[in-house]
Structure formats: C-alpha cells, structure tokens
Write a structure and sequence with these properties.
- The structure holds two protein chains of two kinds.
- Chain A is α+β, with helices and mostly antiparallel strands.
- Chain A has helices spanning 2-8, 56-69, 71-78, 102-107, 119-122, 189-197, 212-217, 247-256, 259-266, 301-310, 327-342, 354-360, 408-419, 423-439, and strands at 13-15, 21-23, 26-31, 37-42, 80-87, 90-95, 139-141, 151-156, 180-184, 203-204, 221-225, 231-237, 273-274, 318-323, 347-352, 374-380, 444-449, 452-456, 459-460, 474-475.
- In chain A, a hairpin with a 5-residue loop joins strand 1 (13-15) and strand 2 (21-23).
- In chain B, helix 10 (223-260) runs parallel beside helix 11.
- Chain B is globular, with a radius of gyration of 24 Å.
- Chain B folds into two domains: 2-73, no CATH class; 88-307, MetI-like (MetI-like fold, Orthogonal Bundle).
- The chains are: A alpha+beta, B mainly alpha.
Chain lengths: 477, 313
C-alpha cells in the first residue's frame, strides 16, 4: 500500500539514502530560536492530479489526518499549540515544547508516512480508508483500471514539478521516465518467476530465496539485494501471563535461542543474513550491540533451563501462535517450537493463518481462554532505524505493542532519544535503550535478514531501497 | 414444465436464505479480525479497537445479520471493508475471467472427454481403452497446480507459444482472450476430462449392450452413427448429470488455477477476502456461487426432458 502511495502522493520532506530528511514539497522552513514556532513555505507550481493547486490548507488537513494514526504524529499533536495555514503557500506550526525530530517525522519512510492530499479527502475519518485517490505525486492512479488485489495502474502526471536535485530514495527530483506502470499482484512465486523470465513483467519486487538461483542463471534477468535496510525477525512473549510475565523466563529464551537456526530457516543463503544482538538496523547510524552478550556465543541450554525453573515454570502449556501462510513466520515458529521442547516446555503449537494470528495477538485474555504466550513476526529495517516508527520497541504496558511489555528504563531512553540535540546524544540514548530492552526482553530478535529483487536487463535505474523507487527508472525497447 | 421451472426457481429462495445464514454464522464464529489486518503491523491494540468500532464490527451478531439481510433483500451486497468499493462491483469486475475460464474449460473438457469415453467403450478392454483410462486415472490423481506448472513450463517458457499468466478481456479481441485461457483451461480441465470420460465410458458400455443397438447394427447403421447418435443420446443422462456436478469441481479448481496463472477472477478474490477477513466480499461471493450452482442444477434437470422424453415433471 505504502509503495504505491509513494507514487501518487508527495511528501513535505523525504528521507534520502543516508536517512536524512530533505525538502520535497517544502521550499523553505524557518524555526524560532526557542524551537517552538515552525514556519513552512511550499514550492510554487505544486498541483493535485485534479488540476487544483496544492494549498497550505490541504497540508494542514493532511497533517491532522496523519497525526491521528502515527506514533510521531500523536506526539506532535500532544505538544501542538497551533497548526494553521497563513496563506496559500505558508503554514505555521506552533508547539508547546521543542520537537527536534519534526522533519524526521514528516519525511520518514516508515508507515504511516506523511502524505499530502486535498483537504476534502483528508477530512475522512483517519480510521477509515479514503475513497478518492487524488494526490500530487509524479504518477496518478488510474482508478478505472484498478482491480483490487490483482492490478493497479499508474500514469505519469504531466503537471508534476520535480525538484532539481538528483533523486535519492524519497528525496530529490522525482523525474518519471516511464509513462505507465502496471503493478500486478502475483500470489504464486513460481508464476512470477516464469513471467519475469518470459518477459511478461519487467521487475519483481520480492523473489523468494529458493527461486533466485534460477533467475541468476537467466541471461536476461538481473538479481540484487532489494533493501539494504533489510528486516529484523522477531517473536514476542506475552508479558501479562506466566511464564513470560517473569523476566527470568524471558531471559531463559534469549539465553538458549540460536539466531543462526532462525536465519537458516528463514532465508538460508549466508549472504542474506547476520546475527543481531540488539534491536536496531545494522549499518545505520544508531545501531548498537550494548547489552547483546545474552544473544552471543555458544548457547547455554542448561543455564536457560535453570532460569526457567527459577521463574516458577512447571510444565503448563505455552501457546505458541504461528501463521502458516507466511514463510517467515512459519519458519521462525518451527524453530521456536523446537527450542521450547529442548528446554522442556510443554508447547501448545497453534498453527493459524495470518488473519487469525493478527486477531489472536490482540487478545489479552489468558492463553487457555483465547490468548497466547508467543507469536512470530518481523519488522522492516526501515522502521527499526530509530524509535520514531518503531512501535515494537515500546514498553509502555497497556499502550505497548502486542505482548504489552512494561519497562520504565526503555521508555525513558526513548524519551531521551526524542530530546537528543545531536547524533552523539542520540547514539548514547539508543545504546542505553538497546541494553535496557535486552535486559527486560521487550521482544526476542531472531536475526537480521535481507531479500532480493529481480528485473529484466532492459530496465535501467533501479536502486536498492526500502521500497521500489520508480523515479529515474527507464525501460529500453 | 413451466410450473416446475417456476417452482424450482422459487425453491432457490429458501436455499439462498439458509446459505446466507450459514455463511454469516460461520464467518462470525471463525477466528480472525479484519480490523487487525487493516490496522497493519505497526498498529497498537488501541488502533485496532478504534478501527473495529468504526467498521461496526463490535456490534451484536443479530443486528449485523439483520442489516446485511436487509441490504441483500434490496439487491445490495454491501461494501468491502478493505477497498471501500461495493461488493457487487468487485464481483462484476472479476466475474468475466472466471466465467471465461469455466466456459473454455467446459467446452474443451466436453469436446475431449465425451469422444474419449465413447471410443474407450467401443474399444473396451483393448490397448486404446486402457490408455484412455490410464489418462483418466492420471487426470484424477495429479493436482491442478502441478499440471499448471508443467504446461506453463513447456508451452510458455520452453516453446514460447503461449503466455505464462494474466487475462485479456474478450473486448480486446478473441485471440488475445483465448490465448490467455488455453493453458489454465487445460490445467483445470484435466480432472474434469477424466471424470466425464469415465462416466461416458461406463454409461456407453451399458447402452451398447441394449437390444436396440443390436437392431441398429442388423439394419446396417454405420458404427459412427451407432456410437454418437443412437448410443450416446441414450447414455447422455448420467453424463449430463456429472457435467452439472462437475461445475462445483470447476469452482473449487478455479481458485487454484487463477492463482497459478495469475488470473484476476472470483477465485482469487475469494481467497484474498478470506485471508483478510473481508466479510462482505466472502458473503457476496459465496451467495453468488450458491446461486450459480443451484441454477446449473436446474438447467441440468430441464435438460433431462430434452434428452429423455420419458422424463416428465
């Protein structure tokens, strides 16, 4: 959804390949010396796909819609004194306290991204989907050719005014060299592979690892890493119910688990994974291994069994929910079940589909009454670069992500990161956060893994990134 | 005949009501929550709850069922939870590929299976019969997706004769439309061909033992005429019955075939809706398929009177 939206809707700011927010729809911004008053001016000539100009009132309405759904948006709403359109191209944001990460919030790649839409559309209840797909991005959505779940078509928006800087991820000049993009959903990877080899499609966003060797042998196909920010595999333990309401039981799991087992099951290919003794994306500025010793070195099953016994665990069933229709969750679930059995845990393996998993993980009731003790998932590396969109790292109890961890240390370090004034302060806060999150075991990271993308050799301009960036991409005959 | 047809059509109403109640109840008790799927992976439990409320999913069963039934009675299948589009429009958008696939499969299957069954019966216990029956066993045994992959590999990837995937609307030309359906129809038709060929053979074997066939032969009627005019017409009732029953097979098989050949039909719409718990779409599709199945069975029953004048309603 976000990937298609990035074509249709433009953003005020966009992160570049170095994860820095750059101006996109904004021409300039001014901030008062106390950091409380931000004044933004939009670029001239911005138009929506219906021909109407992009006005400051549209931005104000779009920001209000985004604020209701986004973690950082909610934070800005809490400290907001005023958000108003000053004139057609200027809007002012007055805060009650400084918010140094404001531009990061407006340009981040993690969902929900801050897309700008006409005020009449932005007025839709933020918890209901919009029904009118008018944006001001470089491509317009061709609604009459849309087959939901099967095909989406985008055509170049002739009136789009790209920036002059070179493009980099969501920033810079989004020059479209393609007149039309047909986004086809192929549920079966073997069919997608055959279609790419046969020249019926040009670019495959997510080929599965098993098929990549076949694609690499085809002289008309290129294969490369899709997103350098990759993904972080994870499983979450329910902090509300025994045995994982006791930190010793959670630590027992980290003490025994072997990330290599998880990553070999998920991706196999050694070039695609690495162990992750922490919670933040490797290769990004805030990456930290502080406190990661518990996940490093030879695994200590005996020590884990002792910890588990100390926690009071005495053989009651542990409900491990595993979505079978997603290869990543299925593979991780099988490894966890094996690990638990080795630890002498009585595993209640609940094989479900993702829809059931999504509903069940929201249940706070005890496991015997529809609840759960463990479930598996993964997080996009683009989200795990910092705490801004990283809901899975939060440990604010009832308001936290599923599993509902509570850790005052973790929460205070997240606040410290938001308040940090420079990169050194940010790094220090994240290092402390990483350590605290491992001590309290907010969740169990199973490793860092990458995925491939593949395209026909007559396609040029494809870059590695957290989503497919079509600007600058061209197709030779 | 007319009164029978009207009675049968009226009888579909209670059938549809039972189906509607059954489907709605089943979805209500099935695990899963569309709000959780819509909210996305980064959503908090509070977000999920808010979406559930905004969609009205927190209301009591009877109220939701009553509202839905009222909509149905007014010809409104409701609105998709995910796309916000009318379910009727979504089904209409997907119905052409599925009906095209089923129609082409039906035609190919009948054109191949009936002659195969007739020849097998005529040449009973010979090598030809055994070869045809061996094919039938294979058709029953090999899953649709395996046949699909094999056909795509040979005819699309290796020989480059036909496309691997996709669907072209019939309005864009007969050949582009048919070209995209050949491989899926053959894959889907395999089990159907096997079924019809076996029933045709069995039915023909019985008819070929009848006295009137001996009489026809004695009068010098040619073999082809005996087989395809005299015998086949008398063997037709069980064959037509199995063709009707087989429509259910086609509906089930279409789900897999549409996935393997990336055809945007009703089958894929159903699977996607089930995985996302898009209740209005699931309910709409099941109702439509139930109606279609009842209709096909009615047509088959009416066809009996044409094939066998002794049958009266």
């Amino acid at each position: 959804m976000r990937n298609g939206a990035a074509l249709v809707w433009d953003m005020l700011y966009g992160v570049d390949g170095k994860l820095q927010p750059r101006r996109q729809m904004v021409e300039s911004e001014e901030v008062s010396s106390d950091g409380l008053v931000w004044t933004f001016r939009l670029r001239g000539g911005l138009k929506f796909h219906d021909g109407e100009p992009v006005l400051a009132k549209d931005v104000v309405a779009s920001l209000a819609r985004w604020q209701a759904r986004d973690n950082m948006g909610l934070m800005t709403k809490e400290i907001e004194q005023e958000l108003v359109a000053v004139d057609d191209r200027t809007f002012r944001w007055v805060l009650k306290k400084p918010y140094p990460k404001l531009l990061v919030a407006l340009g981040k790649v993690g969902t929900p991204s801050c897309f700008i839409m006409p005020a009449r559309i932005a007025a839709t209840d933020p918890f209901k989907p919009i029904g009118d797909y008018v944006g001001s991005g470089p491509m317009r959505f061709v609604r009459n050719e849309w087959v939901p779940g099967a095909k989406a078509v985008f055509e170049r928006f002739a009136d789009y005014a790209p920036r002059q800087e070179p493009n980099s991820w969501l920033s810079g000049g989004k020059h479209m060299l393609l007149e039309r993009i047909e986004w086809i959903v192929m549920p079966d990877p073997a069919t997608a592979s055959a279609a790419l080899q046969n020249g019926e499609v040009d670019w495959w966003e997510t080929p599965i690892a098993d098929i990549v060797p076949v694609l690499k042998k085809n002289r008309n196909v290129m294969v490369d890493i899709a997103d350098p920010l990759g993904n972080i595999g994870s499983f979450r333990m329910n902090h509300l119910h025994p045995p994982f309401n006791d930190v010793r039981a959670r630590r027992a799991i980290l003490t025994a688990m072997n990330q290599e087992d998880y990553m070999r099951a998920v991706v196999g290919d050694n070039a695609l994974w690495k162990p992750l003794p922490g919670f933040f994306t490797p290769g990004t500025p805030l990456y930290s291994e502080d406190g990661g010793e518990i996940l490093k070195g030879p695994r200590r099953l005996d020590a884990a069994k002792r910890l588990l016994a100390d926690s009071g665990y005495s053989g009651q069933p542990v409900t491990c929910v595993v979505a079978q229709d997603l290869q990543i969750t299925k593979a991780q679930g099988e490894v966890t079940a094996d690990l638990l059995r080795k630890l002498g845990v009585n595993v209640d393996f609940a094989a479900v589909d993702w829809g059931t998993n999504a509903a069940r993980r929201a249940q706070k009731s005890p496991p015997g009454q529809g609840g759960w003790q463990m479930f598996h998932t993964w997080h996009a590396g683009a989200v795990c670069i910092d705490p801004s969109s990283y809901t899975a790292i939060r440990a604010n109890g009832d308001k936290a992500w599923f599993g509902w961890p509570t850790s005052a240390k973790v929460e205070s370090e997240i606040t410290a990161w938001y308040d940090a004034r420079n990169l050194d302060e940010e790094k220090a806060a994240i290092a402390r956060l990483n350590k605290a999150a491992l001590e309290d075991v907010v969740y169990a990271p199973t490793g860092f893994f990458l995925a491939y993308q593949a395209w026909r050799k007559n396609i040029d301009g494809i870059v590695k990134g957290p989503l497919p960036f079509f600007w600058g991409v061209s197709k030779a005959a | 005949m007319l009164s029978y047809t009207i009675r049968r059509i009226l009888a579909t109403i209670p059938v549809m009501v039972v189906v509607a109640l059954f489907v709605f109840s089943l979805l209500y008790i099935a695990p899963g929550d569309p709000a959780a799927v819509i909210a996305g992976d980064q959503a908090t439990p509070a977000d999920v709850e808010r979406i559930r409320q905004s969609l009205g999913l927190d209301r009591p069963f009877l109220i939701r069922f009553g509202e839905w039934l009222w909509q149905i009675l007014h010809g409104d299948l409701g609105t998709s939870i995910f796309t916000n589009l009318p379910v009727a429009a979504m089904i209409a958008q997907r119905v052409e590929p599925t009906l095209s696939l089923m129609a082409v499969t039906l035609v190919i299957a009948i054109c191949l299976a009936v002659p195969m069954g007739v020849v097998a019966a005529w040449q009973a216990d010979t090598l030809i019969d055994r070869a045809i029956m061996a094919f039938a066993v294979l058709g029953f045994s090999v899953p649709v997706f395996v046949v699909g992959y094999l056909l795509a590999y040979v005819f699309a990837l290796e020989l480059d004769w036909l496309p691997v995937q996709g669907y072209t609307q019939i309005s864009e030309g007969l050949w582009p439309w048919f070209e995209n359906l050949i491989l899926p129809a053959l894959a889907l038709g395999c089990v159907y061909i096997a079924l019809i060929a076996r029933i045709t053979r069995a039915s023909m074997l019985e008819v070929l033992q009848q006295d009137f066939i001996r009489t026809a032969r004695a009068k010098g009627v040619g073999q082809t005429r005996i087989l395809f005019v005299h015998a086949l017409k008398n063997a037709a009732v069980p064959i037509v019955t199995v063709i009707g029953i087989g429509v259910a097979l086609l509906i089930g098989g279409a789900v897999v075939t549409e996935t393997v050949f990336a055809i945007p039909g009703i089958g894929r719409l159903t699977v996607d809706a089930i995985l996302r718990r898009d209740y209005p779409v699931i309910q709409g599709v099941v109702l439509m398929f139930s109606f279609l199945y009842v209709l096909v069975n009615l047509l088959i029953d009416l066809l009996y009177t044409v094939l066998d004048p002794r049958i009266r309603y």
